[in-house]
C-alpha cells in the first residue's frame, strides 16, 4: 500500500504518504490539498496558519491549494474557483496516466457536480497525482473535458511555503520578466531587480517564467526549487502586516513565516475540446545550502 488514511477531529480523511528516507506528506481530501510536507529531518516545508479552518465551505489557509477553474478573479464568480472548496475522492482509475509504481504516491479526483454545473456549465474531471520522493514533492494535475462543448479555464497550484523570515528571502528566476501587479489594478510592469526580496505586501503574477524558480532561505540554510511544466506563469503573494490583520483565518504575524509562490496558467487560458485532457506538472525540491560556506550558487540551482 502506498499510502494510509487517517480521520482527524473534523471527520474528514487525510492521506499520509511516507517514503523510506523519512520524508512525509499529508493530503486532505477537502480541496485535494497537500497540508504538510516534511523532509527527512522532519522539518515542515509548507505553511498552514494556526487559524486555518478545515471545515467546509471555507478554503484551508495554507499548504498547497488547487485553483480551478480560475486563478484569482478572471470572470467566474468564485475567487480561485471551487476545486479548493470541494471534497475530492481517491482516483482508482488514473488512466491514461500509467499507474504509479512508486510506493509513495496517491491519485485524487474531483468531478463536476450538478450544483457546480449551475454556475460553471462544463463537465470535467480534475485529477491530481501527488508523488513523494526524498527531498522532492511532485504534483501532476490533469483536467479532462467530459462534456460535449469546448471550455477554457485558468489554473494554479498555490504553494504556501514555510520560510524563516520573509524579509530575508530571495527569489531567483523572475528577474527581467513582465508581471501583472494586483496592487496596481493588474497593471503590467517589468521586473528590474536581479532577485526578488520582500519588504512589504506583494501580489503579482509573473508571466511566461523560466521552468525553474529558486526560493533561497539563508537562515534555514536551504533553497527550495520550484520546477514546472505547462504552468507558464507564477504568482507571488504575501499580504504583509496590514492585510494579514484583515484575513480572519490568518494570524497577525503569520505573514513573516510564509511566502506564496504559485505555478499557474493564467495569461493564456487552456482551451479543451470534448474528451481532450490537459496535464501540468510541478516539482518542489530542497537543496541544502550554507550561506557562510558559499555552497549556494543560484545559477547552479536554476540552470544546473
Ligand atoms: O484569500 P484567498 O482567496 O485564498 O487568496 C489569497 C491570495 O491568492 C493569490 O495570491 C491572489 O493573487 C491574492 O490576491 C490573494 O489575496
Automatic annotation (TrEMBL):
InterPro entries for this protein: Aldose_1/G6P_1-epimerase, G6P_1-epimerase, Gal_mutarotase_sf_dom, GH-type_carb-bd
Record's GO cellular component terms: cytoplasm
EC number: 5.1.3.15
Coiled-coil residues: none
GO BP field: carbohydrate metabolic process
Catalytic reaction list: alpha-D-glucose 6-phosphate = beta-D-glucose 6-phosphate
Similarity-based family: Belongs to the glucose-6-phosphate 1-epimerase family.
Designated name of the protein: glucose-6-phosphate 1-epimerase
Lineage: Eukaryota, Viridiplantae, Streptophyta, Embryophyta, Tracheophyta
Amino acid at each position: 500500500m502506498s499510502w494510509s488514511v487517517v480521520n482527524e477531529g473534523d471527520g474528514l480523511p487525510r492521506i499520509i504518504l511516507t517514503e523510506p528516507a523519512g520524508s512525509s506528506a499529508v493530503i486532505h481530501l477537502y480541496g485535494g490539498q497537500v497540508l504538510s510536507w516534511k523532509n527527512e529531518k522532519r522539518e515542515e516545508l509548507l505553511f498552514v496558519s494556526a487559524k486555518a479552518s478545515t471545515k467546509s465551505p471555507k478554503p484551508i489557509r495554507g499548504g498547497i491549494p488547487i485553483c480551478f477553474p480560475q486563478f484569482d478573479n478572471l470572470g467566474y464568480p468564485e475567487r480561485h474557483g471551487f476545486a479548493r472548496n470541494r471534497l475530492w475522492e481517491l482516483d482508482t482509475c488514473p488512466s491514461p496516466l500509467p499507474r504509479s509504481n512508486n510506493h509513495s504516491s496517491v491519485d485524487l479526483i474531483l468531478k463536476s457536480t450538478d450544483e457546480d454545473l449551475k454556475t460553471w456549465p462544463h463537465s470535467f474531471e480534475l485529477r491530481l497525482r501527488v508523488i513523494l520522493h526524498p527531498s522532492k514533492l511532485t504534483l501532476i494535475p490533469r483536467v479532462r473535458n467530459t462534456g460535449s462543448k469546448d471550455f477554457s479555464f485558468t489554473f494554479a497550484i498555490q504553494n504556501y511555503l514555510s520560510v524563516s523570515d520573509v524579509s530575508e528571502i530571495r527569489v531567483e528566476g523572475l528577474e527581467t520578466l513582465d508581471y501583472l501587479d494586483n496592487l496596481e489594478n493588474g497593471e503590467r510592469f517589468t521586473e528590474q531587480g536581479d532577485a526578488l526580496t520582500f519588504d512589504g505586501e506583494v501580489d503579482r503574477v509573473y508571466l511566461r517564467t523560466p521552468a525553474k524558480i529558486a526560493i533561497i532561505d539563508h537562515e534555514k540554510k536551504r533553497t527550495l526549487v520550484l520546477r514546472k511544466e505547462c504552468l507558464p506563469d507564477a504568482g507571488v503573494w504575501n499580504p504583509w502586516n496590514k492585510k494579514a490583520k484583515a484575513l480572519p483565518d490568518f494570524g497577525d504575524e503569520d505573514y513573516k513565516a510564509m511566502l506564496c509562490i504559485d505555478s499557474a496558467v493564467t495569461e493564456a487560458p487552456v482551451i479543451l475540446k470534448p474528451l481532450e485532457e490537459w496535464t501540468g506538472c510541478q516539482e518542489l525540491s530542497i537543496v541544502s545550502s550554507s550561506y557562510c560556506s558559499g555552497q549556494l550558487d543560484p545559477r547552479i540551482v536554476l540552470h544546473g
